[in-house]
Amino acid sequence: MTPVAEKLRDEIARGGPLPFRRFMEAALYDPEGGYYRRDRFGRAGDFFTAEQVQPVFGRLVARYLRKLAGPGPLQVVELGAGRADMADAFTGFRYLPIDIGGPALPDAVDGVVFSNEFFDALPVDRVFFQNDVPVEARVGWHGDRFVWVAGDAVDERTEAYLRRYFPAWQARRSAEVHFAALDWIGRIAARLRSGYHVAIDYGYTTRESARFPDGALMSYRRHQASEDVLAEPGERDITAHVPWDALVDAGARCGWELVSLRPLARTLLEAGLEDRFAAVLGDPAPLPLRLQLKTLLFGMGETFQVLVQRPAGPALPAARQP
Fold it and tell me: Is residue 19 classed exposed, middle or buried when 0-12, 13-18 and 19+ CB atoms within 10 A define those classes?
């Protein structure tokens, strides 16, 4: 049994079944055994991220941010920076990597708050639908394993979220509620005085949510995906697709406007087509870099989306819109 599993089991023994958000938070971020406290990336780890298709990904993102924000000194704050894989690409910027449990966001940002696969790893609440009534999904302990337990009917805030982002819930069996992601939008908005919020991730719009009648929780270990998100807490990644419309609405409540939401491939193409990717790949382009570009454009590029928001009002000086 993992150290995190022991801790969660003991919490359940003392106080009963836990909210799933508590389970997910401990599984990923517990300081003594959380999944993200160790290096889990690359061929010998559990999965790849776009940041590891380096240096092409970083160079293209840096070019896009420069084109978006315009010339001059640019502050870039990266959320969920992990090992700061983007540091080399962002050497021309005033770069500040931020991770959960690490340094806090600066009090004021004039530039770009950037993230790649940050929002999908934030803890979520889970809901079951029983006879079309949403109830809280909690985590209990039975025998030698963690199990799902149906809790009480959800509160008014959760029900309002479900009605807004899952309007046809009669066909659903479960769903995730991303209050932590909405809270992060509020934190960013409180500090982003001018510039942009740019988030790369995978997710769904309200209209697309019907594709996930059982929700969109997944776990990953050794490059294998599983729907069993309760097994081996601390040893598996747990993710939940990002509800794009919820993030857009949260930004609007903070006075932001939506600039764009589009596939990653389109964003990277915009960054590189001006010189046919020569500045990114070199001329002639080495085969490994060409393969990285192909992976980005035709693999990850069609799966991931890029959300761009900004505070309403004047943009950064000389800003160029996408």
Answer: middle
Does 318 fall in a domain?
A: no
Mean pLDDT score, 300-321: 72
Is 132 a domain residue?
Answer: yes
pLDDT for 277: 85
Q: What is the CATH number of the domain that holds 304?
A: 3.40.50.12710
Q: What is the CA angle 183-189-193, rounded to 5?
A: 165
Q: What is the pLDDT of residue 281?
A: 87
Place of tokens 């979520």: 124
Read off the pLDDT of residues 291-309 as tens digits, 9 standing for 90 and up.
888 878 887 777 999 999 9
Domain hosting residue 135, numbered range:
3-311
268/11 Cα distance (integer angstroms): 46
- What's the rounded mean pLDDT across residues 101-129? 95
For residue 322, is it within any domain?
no
The residues, ordered by sequence, that sit 6+ positions from 194 with a Cβ below 8 Å of its Cβ are 110, 111, 311, 314, 315, 316
How many domains, in total, are found in the chain?
A: 1
Residue with tokens 């809270």: 183
Nearest 5°: CA angle at 183, between 103 and 5?
70
Residue 317 lies in a domain: no
CA dist 64 and 42 (Å) reads: 25
